[in-house]
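Cross-posting from the modeling subforum.

Setting up a comparison between two proteins and wanted a second pair of eyes on the formatting. Protein 1 (sequence, then structure tokens):
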Amino acid sequence: MGTAVVVGIAAILRLVRLDQPRGQIFDEVYYAVDARHLLQHGVEWDDATGTGAFVVHPPLGKWLIAVGEWLFGYREWGWRIAPAVAGILAVLIVTRLARRLFHSTVLGCAAGLLMALDGLQLVLSRVALLDIFLLLFVLAAFACLVRDRDGRAGRPPWTVPWWRLAAAVMAGCALAVKWSAVWYLLGFVVLIVGWQAGARRSAGVARPWRTALREERVWVALSGLTVVAVYLASWTGWFATGAGWDRHWLATQGRTEQPVLGALLNLWHYHREALHFHDTLSVPHRYQSWPWQWLLLDRPVLFQWSCPDPCTVTSNTSEVLLLGTPLLWWSFLPALAGLVWLGVRLRDWRAWAIGCGVLAGIVPWFPFELSHRTMFYSYVAPAEPFLILAVVYVLGALPRARVLWAGGYVLAVALTFAYFYPVYVSETLSYSQWWARMWLGARWY
């Protein structure tokens, strides 16, 4: 019942007025259009040249947007419904995952409610961008791994780990949305081996890590092959149509294309070009930010802004601002400190698993700051569920006498979210009402 209420709240917030604001905002001008082209041509398309377009993200997220356009047409509901469904499913998964991790329905519902009331997750659920799909698949993969860990006890080692293979499918889907999922793939491998080594240590095995690596290598390898298979399947349109960008690159170089190997080599060339684009992306942008700024909400992203011309202090305004619920996000840093302290003190695998999810979503981006790569606050999205789990983990560790403090915290987050809700969904505000919500001044507009 509690899960249904939380998911119902999430659904209402994400579906009501989903067609507002009208038109394509921010990067919807790319992804909504790419989705339509996938329906028309099977690949992303350049209307100006009449050929396949060079794009730098895998196709799965755009295919999901395309499903919505196929169902509801090429309009706001069409290109936004798939992200909305993804956002709702993410709330459902984090609720059940937290229930499993903390053995508490109250804490599970608290985790789901905090995600439902987070501005970052809400905004990404209401626009046709890729980040909400990345968040969903990473979270689903982690939830499957936790389910696999819980079910491994007492099972013969040759039993097929279906939940682990399901995690591999979800991880492959994440990678097929954005390549940044690769850091989670590496983190999840560490978790699998670490959990199995811990189980063998508890059983008195002399060399638990070596034994775990030896006994789990087959399933880890099979999971890796599953990830690759799912990822390649997302490129089916590019393989099948022959019209995608550089689909026959080898032939243009005067080289022979073998039936299967040739297509894979052409795709490898495509990936090298896309990786070069990502590595050299350093064009300044007004709303770019660095990883150290993300948890501080130092530079959110303006998706849409409307104000009559001339815009004065007496004008009415509306906007869509990609901004996490401030009270929630500003509590992440102390929660992470508490997570580390409790993890060391209690030697709790849950703390380290949650921390791994946070690290995989933030730390790998820091080196790119040295090359001045253009980055945005939205890149932190897949780490958000783990940050929320960290908060709930610390809340669950509070003494019983402080349970009311935890309830008060969740209520305060809800009230903060309600206050900022208009700038998440483009509701009309007076200029003074809008300015009152710009708590960090020019950093937020």
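Protein 2 (same layout):
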Amino acid sequence: MHQWTLIKQSHAWGESDDAAYALALGASEQAMAVMLNVLRPAYLSVIFRQIFHILDLVSSAEAPAKGWDHIALGTDYDGVINPIDIYRQSSDMRSLRSDLIEFWNSTAAHPDPAIAALYTSHLYGKKPAFWVDKLLWSNGNEFLRKYFGDRYLKSGVVA
């Protein structure tokens, strides 16, 4: 796992060319595919459990989906933090998006009614893609628009 992530990071940061990347990645990719198929559902389950916990704490009967306006997932773009192994950098966000949506859809149809209910109860009448896009892009962009404009940074006035 460590070697695989080093190869990916080296290429993403421009430290290896495409040919060297393909050669190095080919050797570890097959072994990683098996491991990632086991790890991916566990990682996604952890992500969703944290999101659902936040939603349950913030939301109310009057505004059940309110929590979705207050969470965002992102990257610091430099790899210093300790990310989830298979979503290590900003270039992995599109993969994370599709994996989250696919996992949510499949788990909402889980044969265990308690598990299915956990995932369907947090949809609030929308499709998973709607909420995942808020989580990965819309909420972060709204935060930046609101708090990183000249008006706020110079005078403290929220846009």
